Amino acid sequence: MSEIMEMLVRRGFIWQSFEIYGGMAGFIDYAPLGNGLRRKVETLWREFFVINERSVEIDTPTVGIEEVFIASGHADGFTDVAIECSGCGRVFRADHYVKEKLNLEVDPTVEAVKNVIQEFNLKCECGGDFRNPEHFNLMFVTKIGPGRGKKGYLRPETAQGIFIAFKRLSDYFRNKLPFGVAQIGRAYRNEISPRQGVIRLREFNQAELEFFCHPGEKRHPEFYKYADDVITLVDKFDKEHRITLKEAVEKGIIAHELLAYFVGKTRRFLLAAGIKDEKLRFRQHKDDERAHYAVDCWDAEVLLSYGWIEVVGIADRSDYDLSRHTQFSREDLSIFVPFEEPVKVRKRKVVPDLSKLGPAFKDKAKKIAEELERLEDVGNDITVVVDDEEITVSPEYYEIKEVEEEIHGERLIPHVIEPSFGLDRITYAILEHAFDTDTVDGEERKVLRLKRKLAPVQVAVLPLLSRDVFVDEAEKIASELREHGIYTELDVTGSIGRRYRRYDEIGTPFCITIDHQTFEDETVTIRDRDTTTQVRVGKTELVEVLVELLNSEKSITEFGEIFRS
RNA sequence: GCGCGGGUAGUCUAGUGGUAGGACAACGCCCUUCCGAGGCGUUAGCCCGGGUUCAAAUCCCGGCCCGUGCACCA
């Protein structure tokens, strides 16, 4: 186990789930400190992507019904059959492999594939035999309700819950584009072989924003905020660029301004969370790498001990999801977008005469009329198709009128830009980038240099000695800090130096020490984790000073005289 | 999923068939005027299941977990 993982487990950031039963790969427990940190990362994310955006946050079920994932395309793997070689261990998608080797279309079912393999004695490229074919899908299946129940899946991403609620959401925003909808929550993928600690989990935390926009207006009014930020980009040809976002858009490296806006915002968020700029890059997905729904995709990658790891995916999903759900649910998920000026259009319209259609066509009359109204610029005898029946309607049943219409807008399916964050990976990356060791008097000191606002324990109150008077005073101060919402720990055990080390290791930015002088002049010391310097501050101003320190990056030396430097 | 290497207190580690040892950490008491001090004491361990054997942490088989290479990662 790496030095940092050893610390994270020992100090209570993360633990292996189901440990007393031997554990299960792909699942972790967030221990007290790790949970605190992740919660704070979520809060920071909300500040960026909900509060300071035209966005709202919702929460939808983690279980989804089968229809959702058929529409979304995630269930395709259902009908995919995988075959694995018993010799070399390679896994192929069976129908693709059969097509390639035998030039044969095979039904993508286990039975059909099995028959083909036997009939043609199909071998692996390495000459090995294939095992029995199996269904291949990374979604967890579940059953809703008793008995045979209804088939459901644990969601593989939070996004679908947003797309499904689109009509309600659009209405909530009074049908005005653009708008964003965020969701923070768990998602599940039944990974074949989860590895690398928290990097690939079977149950993980996502923070996703679906930003719905006009297909022709992929811009953002606040792009100027990030336009001049210099970032590292790796394009789909593996070419590295170190340029501003503005240039990246102008040169067409990033497809459009809105995508670039979210690249910039994502970068600022990650930096605010403590990711190091020099260990951060944005990489464009290659053409064969993109998900089935994406037209362009940029990953934020962070350099960790595991290599460059994807922590955020920023995808232009176009109208893929809303179109698919329109098709499968038969609900209209388009939005009416008014033109700036109404457009006048002259056209010939077919106006059905229901008083004649009715007696002649009886119960079909209504449908025929609807079909007729849909047509324009027609000849004399019109043929329409109603209930698979061709019906010819002669001119006596309708009138053709030349009309001038004002068109006020158009219905269109919004496109969606999706920044999707892996919170577990980000939380881990923050820890790795914050982890530092330095040497003091030949002793190694481990320090977690977390951003102050993310530290799970913000302040530790430490009586210099374990005598009652010191401890009583420390308890009073700790209570006061807690009443003001500061996450405070009180620690009485061990020498003062040992206690400083403890809190350095878990990233606590400030230690308050009660010493002899406290009883002489009502002051305490504040010790800064990163510099280990101390200043003396009056007890009465302590809360105010700490609140300001915790919400800024100011130096403690601005708030008091240096003590024992 | 396949191959290789591992799994002994909270952590790290010694232990090749015969009573499981240490370090650090933690906890208690004493001492102590600021950066892993000291003294005394305490807690705490052989991943799980089966087999071989009089006897298994140790040998064998299977599983689980960790690491790693291949494959997979919509």
Short note summarizing the structure:
31% of the residues lie in helices and 31% in strands. It has four domains: 229 residues, 2-Layer Sandwich (BirA Bifunctional Protein, domain 2); 55 residues; 73 residues, no CATH class; 107 residues, Rossmann fold (3-Layer(aba) Sandwich). The strands form eight sheets. Strands 3-10-11-21-16-15-14-12-13 form a nine-stranded mixed beta sheet.
Question: What do these coordinates show?
Answer:
- It contains 18 helices and 29 strands.
- With 565 residues, it is of the alpha+beta class.
- The protein has four domains: 3-61 and 158-321 and 417-422, Bira Bifunctional Protein, Domain 2 (BirA Bifunctional Protein, domain 2); 81-135; 338-410, no CATH class; 457-563, Rossmann fold, CATH 3.40.50.
- The strands form eight sheets. A nine-stranded mixed β-sheet has the order 3-10-11-21-16-15-14-12-13. Strands 25-24-26-27-28-29 form a six-stranded mixed β-sheet, sandwiched between helices. It has a three-stranded antiparallel β-sheet with strand order 4-9-8.
- A hairpin with a 2-residue loop joins strand 18 and strand 19.
- Helix 2 packs across helix 14 and helix 3 (66-72) crosses helix 11.
- The longest helix is centred in the first third of the chain and has 20 residues, at 32-51.
- The two termini are 37 Å apart.
- The model has no long low-confidence stretch (mean pLDDT 88).
- The structure holds one RNA strand of 74 nucleotides.
